[in-house]
Specification:
2 copies of one chain form a homodimer. With 287 residues, chain A is an alpha/beta fold. Chain A has 10 helices and 9 strands. In chain A, strands 3-2-1-9-8-7-6-5-4 form a 9-stranded parallel beta sheet. In chain A, α1 packs parallel to α3, α4 runs parallel beside α5 and α6 runs parallel beside α8. Chain A is globular. At the A-B interface, loops of A face loops of B.
């Protein structure tokens, strides 16, 4: 298992962690000053500054991506909506390519309209079929662009509105169905926040293997947790066995970044510099 | 599949649904007036009125139990705590017997101390082993008393503090290990709120079969859900496919109650009579 205590070469900052503090170009600048070598930006952050400008800034600073957030949200109430989702995913792949990302992270979606409190239907089986079909269709363009797709299973508390794939097992079943050759073009993003609770976690990480393990996201689960979406903890502040899970990932052949992704109303209120410095410290001490 | 539209013979009220409105004896009286034939009370509610008095009231009204809530919370920081939990579970079995319950529901517990924000350890594997050992030990007394134990998998968002068994599959694995003969003395309580999201739900219900399916709890998942514990919806107000899941249960041989269990800061503020009347109406129309 890699020793993270001596440096933070393997640290990536998912830029949603500091999205309220600064625009993406300022975040990248702050990362460069701290010798943070990787980020994982969100599309809205990239669009706000401009794709070409961010691509140039990455080249200038030598910072690379550990992933690009995000494609997905495949289910829709009608054919037009399904087609629009596919268009948007092709666009996301092209942007990921421009930024030199090693993968496009997929938050697959679930009951259409549920995010705004008005689900168009409640048949989660239908949503799962639409997700499966959406990934299959998107995989063609991904292969053509050599841009791997990383399915991110989300926590079951987000199953109604954000993702109807909620376990590594389910994500890997889809990978096996659509990419039986393990081409490296379809895998998973393992975010500890979403999957730490799973009694089958170690076994499914081992099953995934290096061809499927495309990303490792870290943060922590607080007790108590006060919000379903925006109360994630800083690494070390909660009960997730970060080092144990990273150990399983590395045993299975994962050698990539540990990407800090903390959606938190508390951490969004602290200064950018402070949050980045603490991420570095915790990366070395507890991840 | 049974037709619930004509009457509410199969309705049970989990009395936590109206726990803030009235003491248990008043709840039982209100149920009797509405010809609700089953309840599932919580131990604290029984203790507050008195075990003997509740037992007598049940005999007088002819109301029976669909379950007794609850045993469990097996993990502990030390030997004394583990032993105390076993004592408490034996006591719960004896109370369930006195009340003529068909089963004792187990909320198995997880990281000890997490409920009060101070987990004694964070090794969920250890908690799972302590749960397994605790159920094994408790099963001896349960068999001696002919009181079936119903393991209730809780939603993964409650995995740190309330239950480290979070899927029907995990619960059934434990049943198979401890009761391979399917004696009827160890099974599961299937609460739709906790398990609706599971892509393996239909398959695991079928696997369980009639010997293992000891209870069906119903409520609904709201979009959005604003609290991890106390924002459950009334049946019909959310996105859970209640009738589909009940259909799977009945196909697998379940012929018991549909027990309405709604932890909700909203519903706890409405009058007892109104909540019971709406439960009856929704039982007939959407369950």
């Amino acid at each position: 298992m890699r020793d993270f205590s001596g440096n933070h070469e393997a640290l990536s900052i998912n830029t949603a962690t500091v999205r309220r503090q600064a625009p993406l170009d300022a975040i990248i600048e702050a990362c460069a000053r701290r010798d943070i070598r990787m980020i994982s930006p969100w599309r809205d952050q990239v669009h706000a500054v401009g794709l070409a400008r961010i691509a140039a800034q990455l080249r200038d600073t030598g910072i690379t991506l550990s992933g690009y957030c995000r494609g997905g949200f495949f289910p829709a109430a009608d054919r037009a909506g399904l087609a629009a989702a596919l268009d948007d995913n092709r666009q996301a792949i092209d942007e990921a390519k421009t930024l030199g990302s090693p993968c496009l992270v997929l938050v697959v979606g679930s009951l259409p309209g549920a995010l705004t409190g008005t689900p168009a239907y409640s048949d989660i089986g239908r949503a799962r079929q639409e997700v499966f079909d959406g990934i299959a269709a998107t995989l063609d363009h991904a292969r053509a662009c050599a841009m791997p797709l990383a399915i991110e299973p989300l926590h079951p508390m987000l199953a109604a509105d954000r993702a109807c794939i909620n376990t590594l097992e389910h994500a890997l079943d889809i990978c096996d169905a659509l990419d039986p050759a393990r081409s490296g073009m379809l895998g998973v993003a393992a975010d500890v926040y979403h999957i730490w609770w799973d009694a089958k976690l170690a076994a499914q990480i081992a099953r995934a293997g290096p061809e499927r393990l495309l990303a490792l996201h870290v943060c922590d689960w607080l007790v108590p947790t006060c919000d379903l979406l925006n109360d994630r903890g800083m690494m070390g502040d909660g009960i997730i066995e970060l080092r144990k899970i990273r150990g399983w990932m590395e045993e299975a052949g994962y050698a990539g970044a540990a990407e800090a992704e903390i959606f938190s109303d508390r951490w969004w209120q602290r200064p950018l510099a402070e949050v980045l410095d603490i991420c570095i410290e915790r990366h070395r001490s507890v991840v």
